[in-house]
Design brief:
heterodimer; A: 384 residues; alpha/beta; Rossmann fold; 3 domains; six-stranded mixed beta sheet; three-stranded antiparallel beta sheet; B: 299 residues; five-stranded parallel beta sheet; elongated; ATP hydrolysis activity (chain B)
């Protein structure tokens, strides 16, 4: 048998290659654990490794596989992640400059008004240069922070007495209480959950929407969660915490296994609610779903899950890129099933639309109130 | 530095049988996790669905080790003055006023008196360092992430520093159990201090055994029927699949009604003990007969 330290370290390294966070410190803990157990007993080694090297439920299946492979005599293959798919942007031929008359060059617009025009352009119809500029503008999009009362008390001018500060003050003045210090509940960022549809029909917008998600994560990293849906649910919050937008996009695309596939929105939503939403991720949160509502699955299920979501969330916001197009009617079956449970139905095709969305996330109303007669029953009055 | 808990317990199996004697049935994995946590002086980080017995484990562990259980229930906004310690301000002021009227002179001396250990109120974490105990930090995922930072500080060297008083160090570090329902990812630095164990629903045989141990009045037949029905319910795609706690509640409800067997009528009457969402109840009520039908391989 190989040396036991070497074996333990090698096992941890193999596990790390398979995607489990079994760092050297954890390998060290494993060795400490094995001192208390029987190193020659496979069951003891299995459990010692499992409690010391794993740190989440998702690790357990990988652990079992690697354990069997490693102690069964063969090395586990390292590649788990699919090859990175960095770019989803699709270039669409730019419509020619308007007024095809004899003009040789377009009038030079000032930067400000060019930016203004760009704000309203559909992001799926941009040239590469324009796209770069829009991407930069999205990254700068400063969504205000929506707040909710916190239970943590902070010093305040009025509120309940704060004995700690009052006494400390009094002691500094030789025991004389001159003023009663007070404290009151502070406020915290309200959680935002973004669910971005990356199926085929959303492909022209997915990149911009994910960049928007990145901007929101960057602003409130602790209070934002991002998921993608398509044929499966993927949590990409961790990937989007990277500072640089392009690096974050690359990491996210590597993590998403189902780019440009179909959509099973109802099922995915259920998976989200079962695994995250109901436990607390969606409770009291702004939940944004960015999708065109092209549901390939059962729309009754979508309707049921949307109802469940609307009971958990603080506000449900549906972003549909097609809503920005003239003459759009929510006709897809999925959209019709979802709308009764949506608080705000907003467009998601241009920078201007993203700014509106940021506004809603900051606790404001979209211009024109709950647009498109979609305010949820009885809820509209609550929006302050 | 530390000798570890339960030096007399030789192996995971021995610890398992001690837990067993207190009517907590731990499988091999859980027994090993607990054994290592006690031996290595590391906190045990338990994750699992609600109602699989995470909190119960800490209680039983305290009973086995014959020490008190100190529980810190986490919630949003939990801060140091609720988890670690707080100064007893009214008593400090009283003391100050008393000293003043008695005409005490030396200010420095008076100040030192004010920040004495007797004016310090120990909250669960400090109390756990001052007594030999099992410390249960329940539902850590409910607390803010700032709280994790100072919990980590306490758990890494089992000491708390009070600026006015100095460092209070545990003579015997407590045995620590931390539970989480996974509503959010707990920080990796904290998890790295701990041994991690995922607690699953028990197997059918074990669940029958748990019912029989916890509720001796339940017949073998009733326990078997309930365990089977609960297993079926867990595959039913419910909003809240029943845990062991619900299994026991349900059996207890059936016993209270004098039921000897789990028939559809008795099940319908007691469904509220096992399913706690209206949607779940509505769905199951319709298919109760099929769900309870004895399976062909007997029961």
């Amino acid at each position: 048998m190989r040396d036991f330290v070497e074996t333990a370290v090698g096992f941890a390294r193999t596990l790390r290659a398979a995607g489990v966070a079994a760092d050297p410190e954890r390998a060290h803990t494993l060795m400490a654990a094995l001192e208390h157990l029987d190193v020659l007993d496979a069951r003891d080694v299995y459990w010692a490794g499992r409690v010391t090297l794993c740190s989440r439920r998702d690790d357990l299946a990988v652990y079992d596989r690697v354990f069997a492979a490693y102690f069964g005599g063969e090395r586990a293959g390292p590649a788990r992640r699919p090859p990175a798919r960095v770019t989803v942007t699709r270039r669409v031929a730019e419509p020619g400059p308007g007024g095809a008359g004899g003009r040789r060059e377009r009038p030079v617009a000032s930067t400000a008004s060019r930016a203004e025009v760009l704000r309203r352009r559909d992001v799926s119809r941009l040239t590469a240069a324009e796209r770069d500029q829009v991407n930069r503008m999205i990254a700068l999009l400063a969504a205000g922070r929506a707040e909710r009362p916190s239970r943590r008390l902070r010093p305040a001018r009025r509120g309940r007495p704060d004995p700690a500060r009052t006494v400390r003050e009094a002691l500094r003045r030789g025991g004389e209480i001159t003023a009663v210090r007070r404290r009151a509940p502070g406020s915290r960022a309200r959680r935002a959950v973004l669910i971005v549809d990356v199926s085929g029909s959303m492909a022209p917008y997915a990149d911009a929407l994910l960049r928007l998600a990145h901007a929101v994560v960057r602003r409130e990293p602790r209070a934002t969660e991002v998921f993608t849906v398509g044929t499966r649910l993927t949590r990409i919050t961790g990937e989007l915490r990277t500072r640089d937008p392009d690096a974050a996009m690359a990491a996210a695309s590597a993590a998403i296994p189902d780019w440009s596939g179909g959509t099973r929105l109802g099922e995915e939503l259920k998976e989200f609610l079962d695994a995250f939403g109901q436990r607390g991720t969606a409770r009291g949160a702004f939940v944004v779903i960015a999708s065109d509502g092209w549901e390939r699955g059962d729309t009754a299920r979508l309707s049921r899950e949307m109802a469940r979501l609307s009971r958990l969330a603080y506000r449900v916001i549906w972003v549909n890129p097609h809503k920005g197009h003239a003459g759009y009617e929510p006709l897809t079956a999925g959209m019709r099933a979802a709308l009764p449970h949506v608080d705000h139905f907003v467009a998601g095709h241009s920078l201007a639309a993203y700014e509106e969305l940021a506004e809603v996330l900051a606790g404001g109303e979209p211009p024109g109130g709950a647009r498109g007669s979609t305010s949820r029953r009885g809820r509209s009055g609550l929006v302050g | 530095m530390m000798t570890g808990w339960a030096p007399g317990v030789e192996s995971p199996a021995a610890l398992g049988s001690l837990l067993d004697r207190r009517a907590y049935l731990a499988d091999e994995g859980l027994a090993t996790a607990c054994f290592l946590a006690l031996r290595m002086g590391r906190p045990l980080f338990l994750e699992g669905e609600a109602g699989v017995g995470k909190t119960e484990l800490a209680k039983t562990l305290a009973a086995v080790l014959e020490v008190p259980l100190i529980r810190l229930q986490c919630h949003e906004g939990l801060d140091a003055s609720q988890a670690l310690y707080d100064w007893d301000f009214p008593r400090q002021i009283l003391h100050l006023k008393a000293a003043e009227s008695a005409g005490a002179g030396d200010v420095a001396e008076l100040e030192a008196e004010l920040y004495d250990r007797r004016f310090l109120i120990a909250r669960p974490l400090l109390r756990a360092l001052e007594t030999e105990c099992v410390l249960l930090v329940d539902e850590i995922d409910r607390a803010d992430d700032e709280f994790e930072a100072f919990l980590l500080e306490v758990l890494s060297d089992f000491s708390i520093s009070v600026p006015e008083l100095g460092t209070i160090r545990a003579r015997t570090p407590p045995a620590v159990v931390i539970t989480s329902n996974r509503t959010r990812e707990v920080h990796d630095a904290l998890k790295r201090r701990c041994l991690y164990h995922w607690l699953d629903h028990p197997s059918y045989e074990r669940e029958v055994e748990i019912i029989r141990r916890r509720l001796p009045a339940a017949s073998e037949r009733l326990a078997g029927r309930v365990a089977r029905a609960v297993r079926a319910l867990r595959t039913e795609d419910l909003l809240k699949p029943p845990g062991v706690a619900e299994t026991l509640d349900w059996t207890e409800a059936l016993l209270a009604l004098g039921a000897r067997d789990l028939d559809p009528a008795a099940a319908a009457l007691t469904l509220g003990a096992v399913l706690k969402h209206r949607e779940d109840q509505d769905r199951i009520r319709r298919s109760l007969g099929a769900l309870l039908a004895p399976s062909p391989n007997g029961s």
